[in-house]
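Support case: user asked for a sample of complex input and structure output to validate their parser. Sending the pair below.
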Amino acid sequence: MTKNEARKIIENRKREMGERLIILGHHYQSDEVIAYADYVGDSLELARKASRVEKADHIVFCGVYFMAESAAILAPGKTVHIPERTAGCPLADMAEPEDVEKAWRVIKRTAKSVIPVTYVNSSARIKAFCGKNGGIVCTSGNAEKIFAWAFDRAEKIFFMPDMNLGRNTANKMGIPEDHVVVWDPAKQQGGVSEQFLAEARVVLWRGWCPVHWPQFTSDDVRSLREKYPGIAVIVHPEADPGTVEEAGMSGSTARILDVVKGMPPGGRLAIGTETNMVRRAARENPSLEIVPLREAYCEDMAKITLQKLAHTLLHLEDGACRVTVEPDVAGDALSALERMLRV
Ligand code: 13P
Ligand code: SF4
């Protein structure tokens, strides 16, 4: 199928389906896919949108699998589809439920009270683990609020799977570095002594997003500032704390775009996140000089193409691209997601 054939199919199907179909798109999608999204957002906005869909029976999610899975959990009466089910997230895959359960048993033993918090970039089973254990989901857009919620209820947070988002959030909340430890699932007892675990306020799972770490570095920020004197820099909090500190600003994809919107004409901004989004922001804001901190593409997000979107729209009724979650997993995962949406 050529791109033009795919465009025709998408346009016809959208017309035929009308309000029975909604297409959601994450900011990291390509321009040609975003052109057909009814709603574009960061992970938090898309989760909220999915939970509030009224008229549509079909939600097509242009993003990665955990996002579509969260939409399926949050919109149980709807049919959720993803154009490519192998569009995963290597970060989400770094936390296996069995390893998390093992860590949990040890961490719980060393704490008077502990709440598990999972980044939305995780499988439904990890969200269900949190839901079952009084825990909650967060996104990069609300991590501080969610940490505060958890600290109101427990002395310790067990955060997974992104150690950088966890560390950056702990830093923002003023938690001393020596009260944050990393649990490495590849090591015996996570590679942490019981004493350190007992003293920690935050236990971080050793996971990371390969698009943001170790790709972006504080050296990148320094050399960019030499090239563009006076340039402002913002990075996604999946970058490491050194890079976040050097940049001076960090935030979710939606927050980054808010910063872009707030810039006066002639402003200069370097953005450290996925390049599709950065290039689009540059094109849509010709009065600004927007540059990527460095080129960084998410291969999984890029698996969603026009042709796959067209194929999905042709197969809405037979469910060929449908995303489903086992009911017992979905129930517990929904508790953790709903707790987040209420905070
Ligand atoms: P946002 O929630 O900021 O959109 O980020 C999602 C993501 O996958 C970042 O890599
Ligand atoms: Fe996962 Fe990173 Fe891609 Fe986001 S950018 S979907 S965290 S691999």
